[in-house]
Known about the structure:
A hairpin with a 2-residue loop joins strand 1 and strand 2. The relative contact order is 0.08. By secondary structure, this protein is an alpha+beta fold. Helix content is 40%, strand content 12%. It has a 4-stranded antiparallel sheet with strand order 1-2-3-4, with helices on one face. The protein has 12 helices and 9 strands. It is elongated. The longest helix is centred in the first third of the chain and has 20 residues, at 43-62.
Amino acid sequence: MARKTVERNISYDEARKIYYVSMDLGKDKDGKRRKRYQTYRTLHAARAGLRNFLTHREEELRTPQHSLTLGDWLETWMDNIVRPTRAETTVYGYQKIIDNHVVPALGHIPLLKLTPMDIQQYYIQVQQNANLSSNTLRRHHDLLSSSLRSAVRQDKLLQSPMDKVEPPRAKQKETSYYRPEELKRLYSLLEGHPLELCAKLAGSLGMRREEICGLRWESIDYQRQLLYIKEARTAFGATIVQKETKTRSSVRTLFIPDDVARLLQMEQERQASKLDEPSPFVVLDHKGLPYSPNALSLAFTRFVRKNDPPRPAPLLRHCGLFPGRAPVRHRQGAGPRHPRHHRPHLHPPGGPHPRGYAAEGVGRAEISQNRTRTSAWGGGRPGGVKLKKISEIEQFYR
C-alpha cells in the first residue's frame, strides 16, 4: 500500500505503521537532487527529526568554505583592517604579539577548526614558556577577540570561538606614590637640574611622560597661565612619533603654577641663547633634541640612583607621582585614586571657570588671589572635599 502524505516531507506507511521523513540533501555534481529517508515510530518524533535535520542543514549551508589558517587570517586582518585604521603604535604592538607568540603557537590551525580549548591551552602555554604576566596575556586575548570578531563580520567564521574562552584575569597593580613631604624633598634635590622642569610638569600638573616629551611652546599661554595638552610623543621600536593624545579625555587645559611658569620661561630663554635654530619642543636633551619617553625615564632613573631621593618611585615612567588633587586627599587620610582619575585639568578657553590642579611643591596652591572662585577638588565623591575659597585651600597646606 502506498504511503500517505501527512504533511510536507513526512509520510505514513499504514502497513508498517511507521513515519517516513524525506530529507533533501541538495544536488550532486551532475545536478541530480539527492534525498535521504529516515523512519520514526511516532509523528511527534518524525517532526522533531525533521526540525533537527533542517537546523543542521541550514548551519552547513551557512558555514564558510575556505582553507584559511589562523595565521593567514591574522595577516589579512592586519593588512586590510588594522593598518588603515589604527595608530602606528597599536599596529606595532599587535604585530609583535602575532609574530612572537600567536603565529608560532596557533598559526597553523585552520580557522574553521580553531576551538576555544585551543586558545585556552595557548594562554597556559605562553604564560609558562614566555613568563608573561596575566595583564600582558589580557592583550593577547583582546587581539584574538577583535580579529575573530572581524572574521565573523567578513563571513569567514560562523561564530567566534572567543565567545566561549575564559579571559585571563588582569591583576590590579599597586602603584607607589610620593608623599607630600617626599615630593617636596625631591623638588629640592632637583633644583637647578635639567630634569627639574620635567619633574614639576609631572608632579605639579600630573602630565604623562609622553605628554611632557610632546609639549610644544605654542601650547603655553603665559598671559593666562594656561597649558594645553593636545599631543603626545611616543615610540614604537626605534621609531619616535608625534601624535594626538590617546583618548579625547586626555585633551585638556592645565593651570600653570607660578614656579612652573618661571621654569618654563627660563628654559625658553636658555634655548633661545644656546640653540642656532629654535626648537618647537619644550623639553630637550643635552644634545638639544626632543626627548623620547624612554630616554626621559632613563635620565630620571639615573638621577635617582645617583642622588638617593626619598624613594625610587617611577615619577617619569607613566604617572607615578601624586598628581592632581591627590595631596588634598592625602591630607584627609584617603588613599589616592588612579592618577587618570585625579589628573588636574581646566575647561577649554571660553568655557566655565577652571577646576582644581596640583600644588606647587606640595606647599600651597598657586592660584592667583583675584580668582575667588569655587575649586571643586574631589567633587562630591566619597573621600573628596569641596574647597570654596583660596583661604580654605591654604589652610590645607599650613
